[in-house]
């Protein structure tokens, strides 16, 4: 019951929007933990997505998921998914170069999944990139046409 009382006390405003006050305890007890839970959910979802893309590239899902959960190590997973040498990690340590390298890696990953390379560039646009990430995760691999 304390949490509900704190929520009602934290939302202490009148119907017309005047009056009331901001209660810092409301933020620390309700909004703060909710924000932490949301950020953790997004992080685990991104790790799951990397593992799904890696599994479609013929890598182990479980191992990829574990690697994707570990900060810094997930960069090695992305480099491996792109088919680039692991020393490219050093390029991630150089400011501005890391931005270009991430574009190159995501273009390579999109092409290895059989999608157009510009999808890799679209992943860097904040809202639109989420949908392209979903399409890379759940999209079907195009069928290889054999020459006769």
Number of domains: 1
Low-pLDDT segments:
none
Q: What is the averaged pLDDT score?
A: 83
Query: Got a strand count?
Result: 0
Helix content: 55-70%
* Order of H and E elements: HHHHHHH
Give the number of helices.
7
Measure the end-to-end span.
72 Å
Verbal overview:
With 148 residues, the protein is mainly alpha-helical. The protein has one domain. The chain is 64% helix and 0% strand. The chain contains 7 helices and no strands. Helix 2 packs antiparallel against helix 3 (61-69), helix 3 (61-69) packs across helix 4 and helix 4 (73-82) packs across helix 5 (97-112). The longest helix is centred in the first third of the chain and has 33 residues, at 24-56. The chain starts with a helix and ends in a 10-residue tail after the last helix.
Itemize the secondary structure elements and their pairings.
Elements (H helix, E strand, L loop, with lengths): L1 H9 L13 H33 L4 H9 L3 H10 L14 H16 L5 H5 L3 H13 L10
Key traits:
7 helices, mainly alpha, 148 residues
Provide a short characterization of the protein structure.
The chain has helices at 2-10, 24-56, 61-69, 73-82, 97-112, 118-122, 126-138. It contains seven helices and no strands.
């Amino acid at each position: 019951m304390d949490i509900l009382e704190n929520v009602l006390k934290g939302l202490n405003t009148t119907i017309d929007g005047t009056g009331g006050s901001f209660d810092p305890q409301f933020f620390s007890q309700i909004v703060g933990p909710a924000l932490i839970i949301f950020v953790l959910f997004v992080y685990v979802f991104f790790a799951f997505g990397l593992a799904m893309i890696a599994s479609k590239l013929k890598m182990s899902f479980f191992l990829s998921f574990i690697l994707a959960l570990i900060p810094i190590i997930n960069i090695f997973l992305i480099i491996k998914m792109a088919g680039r040498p692991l020393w490219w990690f050093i390029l991630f340590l150089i400011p501005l170069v890391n931005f270009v390298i991430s574009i190159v890696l995501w273009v390579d990953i999109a092409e290895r999944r059989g999608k157009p390379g510009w999808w890799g560039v679209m992943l860097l646009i904040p809202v639109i990139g989420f949908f392209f990430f979903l399409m890379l995760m759940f999209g079907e691999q195009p069928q290889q046409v054999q020459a006769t």
